[in-house]
Amino acid sequence: MSKSAAKKIQAIRGMNDLLPSESPRWQFFEAKVRQLMHRYGFDEIRTPIVEQTALFARSIGEVTDIVEKEMYTFDDRNGDSLTLRPEGTASCVRAAMEHGLLHNQTQRLWYQGPMFRHERPQKGRYRQFHQVGVETYGFDGPDIDAEVILLSARLWQELGLLEHVTLELNSLGSTEARAAYRDKLVAYFDQHHDVLDDDSKRRLTSNPLRILDSKNPAMAEMLNGAPQLMDHLDDESRTHFEQLKAMLDTAGIDYVVNPRLVRGLDYYCRTVFEWTTTALGSQGTVCAGGRYDGLVEQLGGKPTPAVGFAMGIERLILLLETLDLIPEEALGGCDVYLLPMDDNATIVALTLAEKLRSELPTLRLQLHCGGGSFKSRMKKADKSNAPVAVLLGEDELAEQAVTLKFLRDDREQLRVSQAELTATLQNLVPH
Ligand code: HAM
């Protein structure tokens, strides 16, 4: 066999397997999210992972990092240009329009799933990553902006993260106000052309607002002196922003107004926000979003106010792990390991296991399969992490009983009849 044929095929760089030892953490997080969405009256939407390339180019913007250099785009067998979704908002708008969900009605939607961006992988930044997002349609007042921010804040609160994240807020104003501001900004940057780095020079004609987002220290002083969007807001956007801040103040949500927060996607107007943490290094934005009142119309629908956000699941799980905030009981394992000691006992154990599962529906019971010596059976029982092993050997079979062996406490083993086993386990195992 040639050397290349023998080479093992590995996962694509930046795309991770989720191993069984890690999946309980995700399930813990996902269960919290699902419950929260239910409590806030948001309905789940699931859209395809692949969409027409034009959808993302037209919504996220032709001259954004995502569309210019990060999309996984390919021609399918019909020659259509398709793209693995880099985010969920565009797909959500497409689906909502296509199925008439925006006609004379409001929507509060949420989704979860993989997104794809060809970025340079590092801690907290991957090429396949996962988002939970919410999108709302048909509400133009600041109450819904506050509502989605409160929803995210409650998630942090319930996960124990609230004190570890900061809410940054800004308003981008209306499209018209932003266009006028853009001209002022370009004039200012033109005066300081020698200080601009190459990236910024490129953006000067395509997307000058993004220059404000630059982290280049050589430009920091010049950027500090730049005209501020906040001073050029239209009256309606200013009122909207003031009302949103008042609502957050009343709700007791702390925030920092960051006049340089512009976001990397073109569809935003008015409110934009990010939840950031300092505990994850450079990839510290765990949730981000804002208002995008123009997008539905831009994609061919009727003008529809919209606001939403998305959070990065990998980053949040990393943060929960770093801060040790995932409760022990959420981390998998089972409650009982049922251990038949020979083939005869196995036949009885299969039935006994089913009986216990019927009678104790929340019990996590693992049945020993695959035979083995006494020593290897006991080793498997120990590895299951169950606190209790239920042993079924020749003596037990003869007596229609079982032996309970406590694997985590220093406690005498116990012989109970099979008829009493349900009641005994009910008392022993908390659920
Ligand atoms: P975004 O800022 O591009 O916004 O992404 C939202 C979040 O997804 C980020 O704050 C981050 O937590 C996570 N994320 C983004 N890229 C990566 C990556 N390469 N690896 C790991 N995590 C990542 C959006 O996607 C908008 N669709 C949000 C939105 C919804 N706005 C309105 N509605």
From TrEMBL:
Known catalytic reactions: tRNA(His) + L-histidine + ATP = L-histidyl-tRNA(His) + AMP + diphosphate + H(+)
Keyword Cytoplasm: yes
PROSITE patterns xrefs: AA_TRNA_LIGASE_II
The protein's Enzyme Commission number: 6.1.1.21
Residue ranges occupied by any Aminoacyl-transfer RNA synthetases class-II family profile domain in the UniProt entry: 26-340
SUPFAM superfamilies, alphabetized: Class II aaRS ABD-related, Class II aaRS and biotin synthetases
Record GO terms (molecular function): ligase activity
Listed Gene3D superfamilies: Anticodon-binding domain, Bira Bifunctional Protein, Domain 2
Localization per record: Cytoplasm
Keywords: Aminoacyl-tRNA synthetase, ATP-binding, Cytoplasm, Ligase, Nucleotide-binding, Protein biosynthesis
Subunit record text: Homodimer.
Family: Belongs to the class-II aminoacyl-tRNA synthetase family.
Protein name, entry field: Histidine--tRNA ligase
